[in-house]
Amino acid sequence: MAKRPTVSTITTGHASITKLNSNFTALRDGFDNTLSRDGSTPNTMSADIDLNGNDITNVNTITNASGVDVVAAAAASATAAAASQTAAAASATAAASSQTAAASSQTAAASSATSAATSATSAATLLDTFDDRFLGAKSSNPSVDNDGNALATGALYFNTSDNNMRVYNGSAWQAVGPTSTEQTNINTVAGIASDISTVAGIDSAVTTTSQSVAILNSLNAMFTAAENIAVTVVNDGGNKFAFNGVTAPAITLVKGFTYTFDVSASSVSGHPLAFKDSGGNAYTTGVTTNGTAGSSGANVVIAVPTTGTMPARYYCTTHGNGMGNTIATQTNDIATVADSTTISNIQTVVNNLSTISAKATVDEATALAIALGG
Hints:
Layout: H1 17-32, H2 70-133, E1 134-138, E2 156-159, E3 164-168, E4 173-175, H3 180-191, H4 193-200, H5 203-224, E5 226-235, E6 239-243, E7 246-247, E8 251-254, E9 258-262, E10 273-276, E11 282-283, E12 287-290, E13 299-303, E14 313-316, E15 320-330, H6 333-338, H7 340-359, H8 362-371
Parallel strand pairs: 1-2, 5-9, 8-15
Antiparallel strand pairs: 2-3, 3-4, 5-6, 6-7, 9-13, 10-11, 10-14, 12-13, 14-15
């Protein structure tokens, strides 16, 4: 702003027109040069503009001493600052995203590390399990696995002494393949394959022999007067004894024979087998009970007498007659024929017939033959 104009003080009236005019002229020049710089004196601005807190408005350009439009420069700087601020915000966002991505990558890396550790642990466990199952090559049966632990059932190792795989069956080692001695036996059998085929071709004869043996065994039972009967208990409308698989049969015992009832089957436990006579009384003559029903080796033996009171029923001493059935007895015809007295009588008859035959005439012999049914 131009320098304040100098105004003379008029002290009295209007005596000095010259001073008054000079003051008006100074005021005019002051107003004319207030905001204008045309290069004339005294309008050169030599002091600050003090707007007493008011704004400068409606300004087109403000040029500095170097001729630069400071308004435009300020606006450009403001725009650049805003752009910088936006770029900084974008950079901050990108940095935040990068930080989040880095955190995610770190989490993923940690998960991968955990998975890798788990996989390593699993691999180590599988290797240890395999190592416990296949113990490798050894010269003798090991008593523990490669870790010094108890042997697992199904463990394997290669025995270098006999070149054979062996497996642990839970209590002992056994060869997977044949031993050298067993292989020698196999080779021997292979060498006589034709002979084996020959023997196989006569199986009908073997079958006949087997049947003959069965018949002989039956005859042996008849002559030795001994028979074994397997006893079980089945549920057939209630518990019942079964003899040789037949449920509660009515049985016939031969006088003079001895019968062994095998009561060792577990199903017979709690069902003692016993006998009664025809009067319903306990029959104990010739009866021997060994062990407890349902336990190993337990049996009931009955030696049927040839005369006197006979067994008439078998039953359970705990559950009564319903578990059993009746018993009939019969004479042993073979034993009767084989009896020494009977044989002696037959021999006497034969001798007498021989004597008669030797002494009789032809007609007498014919008559004797007719009389005897000849």
